[in-house]
Every structure is written in structure tokens, then in C-alpha cells.
Design brief:
single chain, about 425 residues, three-stranded antiparallel sheet, 20 helices, 10 strands, about 45% helix
Length: about 425
Amino acid sequence: MSDKELRKVVQSTDGATLRKTSIKMEAYWKPEDETQQIMRKSKSFSRGHEGLLTAIKWKTETVRAWKDGKLIEPSQANGITLSKAVTVADEDVNGWAHCKSSHRESSLSRAQVFIDRYGANRTLESISYQDLIDYRKYLKSLRIGRQRRQLADASVNQYLLTVSKMFTICSQAGYISKDYPKIPLVKIVDTQNKRYFRYDTDANGNVVIDEEAKLYELCEAFGGKFLELKMLIQLGVHTGLRIGEICGAKCDWINFRNSTISVPATFAKTKKDRNVLMNDQTKAIVRYFMNNRIGSQKLIKSHFEAYLKRDTKRKGGKHLWDKFKVAKYFNKLRDRMGLSNDPKFTYHSTRYTHITRLLEQGIPPHVVMKWVGHGKLETTMGYVTTPQGHIDSCAEAISAHPATARNTTNEATVTVDKPLHTRGQWKQNKFGKKQ
């Protein structure tokens, strides 16, 4: 059987998934009695015709055993170790294995931190809520990277969600009971994390602060690859694309006739296709990096020679722009601007700047939501700014309303020389007595 024929057969087989070197088969059974738990289990087999037949046979026998009441042995259900739990979550089709390779590798490394903390032979069933609280404290105490920085709250939640996935998958597979502890995620209350490029003017209209212009000025002063970084920053400001979408863009995403960049669902954070219109500035930048190339080649290709030896062996020896290189060069600009203590000032600020400026220009939030690919309107509304000039105009705006203006006088006519009634008269009026 050829590889093409094998692919068609696997696609038509329920529960089967074709991988590079193996075939993953999922066995699934939903009992008629709703009080019983749903059984799900997956296993990998060799890639080929014989492996597919073995996978189908295994699935059939497993589902039949579940229907006959032959579930997992009690000793196994209460004794799955953490190392085995990671393997079960990794091999399950609903685990992190269906994601991109980078996400799968990071999930495995995060799960390994949990194993190193509590031991590979400890059972998953023995992990209590207090253990998870202690693990969260441990994650907050970690220092990573060259600068030994503390994990952000969002990163801590990513580690905890990996553990949550282990509990969920093992519970669905019947290894543990459904009464596993709730994952204590960190509540993120910081609403000021959306750092955009500041732009401010004085009362006379003179520009006081323009961080975007300062970035471009430094790029031109440094020259070389920083000139391409300037274009990448401009691309982010003009399109609102994420750095992963920019660095992962293909040449066939570009349509100059329709002036669009088509972002497929596989690259979009919300897993939905969207089209981004290009203005003249964006077209010029895209033409520079595209350089008459077509097809599925990477769109962002530098014109400068690579510095590292490992980069000279790939992509024709040209400098490779990825999200790590962009962050490295951007941080140099940030340090030169004196903002090294502002970790929120990153390349992602170009996207925040794009969204904020659209809203300040009067574009409705629901339109901006679809344009930039937000999944919820609340996410877009978090970018709405309230300039002081708008706040100061509220007093005049309420007075200008016709209903308010009709019932407004410019003088206060209340006389306070004499009281309207005495305390005794007020009591008589209250209880209906004659004065």
C-alpha cells in the first residue's frame, strides 16, 4: 500500500490519526447509562498497512471489553504514576499532541517540572488541592532566563493548565476518579498590561512624546538589520498581525490584486481564517521581503547575510527573522530608549498600538474585533482609551442635550432666609393633623 493510499484509508477510519512515524488509534465508548463514565483510550501503532489492521483490531477488542464491563483494574485505576499520566495525556488525541510541535514540546517540558517537583513514581490520585497550591507557590518562586526573571502570572497558568490536562485525560480514560481537585489558577487582575506606543502633544499641538518615531530613529542610526526591523515594526503597526503570524507567513498568503493577507486558521490564535487588507505602506514592505518569490516559501526573508554558522547552512545563508530574533533586536532598542525596566514594552506593543489607534479613530469595537481576530468583544473593549479631553467634555455634553438645556437656568433662585415650616408643623403635616 502506497503512502497516499494509506493516508486515504486512515482518514476514512474512525478514530485513526496518521503521524510521521506511527498511526494513533482512539477507542471511545459512551454508555447508555448516563451515570457511568465515558471511556476513552488511545494507542500508537507502526505506520503501515499491518499497523493499521492491528490498530483496528485493538480498538474493536477494547470497546467490546468496555461494553462487557471489563474496565480498568482497580489497582491500575488508583495507581497511575505521574510519568505514566504524562504519557497518557501526550498520546491522547484530545491532549496537547494535536497542537503544533512547539506547543507539544513546551507542554512536555512543563509537565516535567511537575514530575521533578513531586517524583515520577508518585500516583496522580494522591495529588491533593494543597499540593497544587504549593506547586503554584513553587512556580512563582522560579527564576528563568539569563536575567533570572520571575514567571508571569499567565505563564504560571500555562504550567497549571498542563497539569489540568493530565487530570482531565486520565479521568476520561478511567485511570482516576472524576473527583480530582480543582486547579488553582492565578487570577490575573492587571488591566494595564496593554502597552502601546505612547504619543502625546502639548496644548499648542507640539509633539512631546512619540515612541514609534524614536524607534525608527534608532533603527536608522544602527543601520543594517535594524532597518529590516523597522519595516517589521511598521508591518505590525499597520496590520495588527501577531509576531507569530508575521514570521510564519507564506508567500501564497499574499494577494496584491485584492490587497489582502490571508491568515489561515492554523496560524490564528482564535483558529479562524481572516483576511487583512494592505495599505500602500504594507504593500511596499511585503514586496521587499517577498522579493518575487511564490508558493509556500517563508514571506519574511532577510536581504542580509547570516552571522551564525547554523544559520548560514539554511535558507541560502541569509539572516533568519523569527520571533526570538525580533525580540532580541527589539530589546536592544528598548534598552537604548531607557525603557529596560518596562517589560511590557515589546514587539507585541505594535498590535496594541494598532488596535488602540483604530478605536481612537472611531472604528466600532465589533468591527475591530473581527479585523484583528479577537474571539470576544470584551477583549477588544479592553483596548478602549479615555483621553482626558473626552472626560473634560462630559460636563458640556450633558448641558448641550436638548432636554437638559430646556430645564436649565443660569441662576439659583432658592431663598434660604426663612424655613419653609417649623419642626412641629412638619410633624403635623406628616401624620395628617390640622395645622
